């Protein structure tokens, strides 16, 4: 699996803003964002694009290149690998099927995937979404899974791979990040929708929102994942190099779909309102965990690091897409996040 759990928990710094203060911030924050982005990039090299919105105001700034040769400038239409930010598409797809009356969050997963063993009987869709199912984390590649992963033609064909791994804990008793759980959710989507997971995303999510640069297959214009990782025992590469690609490491419902800044802006704005999901379903999928309601996900893998945070009650959103190793993108997001609320930039050094 490419997707790994977020390498850094981003700090929430969105304090309450009066309408007059919000208007003032919207008039001044783009310049502050540009300064902050430049300052953060001096502390930790960054290649990618930052996009943000506050009310009607917008900020977008690309930096670096989409290839190792420095010949393809990054634009708002350059697709990046999203790592675990792609899980948001799976969450929304489940929510759409809930609103359509085809799923319920308290459904046992075996109602839709009866081929799962008895040990999975107590697991609900809500537990899969919230990483409380006990399903194997699968956050590190297992070479034993490589043949099945490479040969998989749809999400449901990966169910046996997940089912063969023992549960880490009794469902509902703990919380542990689980790519395996999101692989099962992709299969649930296929069972409920009667079509492959990629086609459901294309027909019900990407096409309606005009997300023309989004999908599960990288095209020639996609940003090349660049990494400094080398063989065990070797020092990091002096400059980022193209990531080695393997057939088994493909995009799935657990992550690594591709999208561009322009497409993700459309997605963020749709999440802000009720275009994609009913208010009740959105609240259930993205429960409030702090004073300020935040929807979103961070994710990283070799040569990619992405963040999307949406603050519906503040009409604000922040997106960072990077084709460098973590934590380049997450550090950039953490530095910039306070600027959306008129607070100082939080420049952060490498770990």
Describe this protein's structure:
The structure is a single chain. 31% of the residues lie in helices and 13% in strands. It has helices at residues 19-43, 87-99, 125-129, 146-151, 159-163, 179-193, 197-209, 261-272, 279-285, 328-336; strands at 48-54, 57-63, 80-81, 226-227, 241-242, 258-259, 295-301, 304-311, 316-322. α1 (19-43) runs antiparallel to α10 and α2 runs parallel beside α6. The longest helix is centred in the first third of the chain and has 25 residues, at 19-43. Residues 1-19 have low confidence and may be disordered.
Topology at a glance:
Elements: H1 19-43, E1 48-54, E2 57-63, E3 80-81, H2 87-99, H3 125-129, H4 146-151, H5 159-163, H6 179-193, H7 197-209, E4 226-227, E5 241-242, E6 258-259, H8 261-272, H9 279-285, E7 295-301, E8 304-311, E9 316-322, H10 328-336
Helix pairs in contact: 1-10, 2-6
